[in-house]
# Entry
Amino acid sequence: MNAPVRPGLRRLAVAAAAALLSGCASFSQDGGVNDVARLTQERIGQPAPIKRDQDAKAEVAALLSKPLNADAAVRIALLNNQALQATLAELAIAEADFVQAGRLPNPGLSFGRIRGGGETEIDRGLSFNLAALLTLPARTGIERRRFEQTKLQAAMQAVTLAADTRKAYYSAVAAAQASSFADKVRGSAEAAAELGARMRAAGNWSALDAARERAYYQDAVTQQAQARLQATTTREELVRLLGLWGPSLKFTLPDRLPDLPVQAREVANAEADALSQRLDVLIARQDAEATAKALGLTRATGFINVFDAGYVNKSTTGMPRENGYEVSLELPLFDWGGARVARAQASYMQAVHRTGDVAVKARSEVRQAYATYRTAYDIARHYRDEVVPVRKQIADEVLLRYNGMLASTFELLAESREQLASVNASIAAQRDFWIADTNLQSAMTAGGNFESRTAQ
# Structure
């Protein structure tokens, strides 16, 4: 006849079963990468293939076979950037920690054998960490939230990579455009210097005017070298973000930057959108929630954090086998857990204040980014619609006067220089607008180091 189960043991078994069922965790099929891709895509406005597969190499080669646009550059970076792949490895580590937190602790087995005086005594024991079992759901929940936080961090890395790639792309295209323009300036300056030398030799120009043209030509040579170096530097910055090397470095950039949009973007509820979408805000909130849950666990285990129970039996020669159970409990004589609880409380308040700080910065950064964006758009449009056309009109008028012998060669060359300077400034203003546009998008969706973004 089976012995009745004691009520205390029954309650313990029910609690253990509940902990077991609620704490189970297993590896996902994608390791959280699909969630990261979704978060990234929602914030960059284009598909986000952040996990490399067998077709990635072929896709990168296909994208590099024709002149790059900004979207193609971002796609290559998401497929090919090694730093992003390292971040995805961190995601796999976080998932492993989450799954490990949901695993039951291994039981302990003990065996002892004593022989003497013609008798043999055997002790057997099977113990289990009940404290670990009963706190299994809480520990699993904490690691689940940390896993979700790591997903947000990985998505932030991907969104930041996309923004950095776009800015590097616009800088590289602008630098290449300016370098090509510098080559033309140098050619014009060289021709002007040769003309000045011939006119000086013929006695039609003063020594001062001829020297001015030679000086302008020397300046043009220096500016051409600087422009070529800038084009090389910005291209290499783009190359690093794209993760390219070897034959892949021979990709082609377009001849000029994209045109300005017809109208500047009007952002409504920018601050509210930033607080709901920015990944650094979501990460701070996740951190505060995880810390709060950890505080609850610390309070639950602050008084007792070692509680083992197990089955034991004992065999002695000539005696019937003895069965029973054993309970091991840590006595809080010296450490009552107050320090652990105080530390957890301080960590929670730290997370709360950090979340508030991130929110304040997010609001300010969005306002600053939009002011920069709007100013950059107005300046670029002013160069496009006013400065460059007026300079061209003046140059055309001076050329007509020169052909009618109403203006000197020096006046014609001087006006050509002014026109060239306005074109260079227009290229820079157009580049600054597209970078400001990227920074605005990043300020509303990703966050992070705003100062370093706006400095580029």
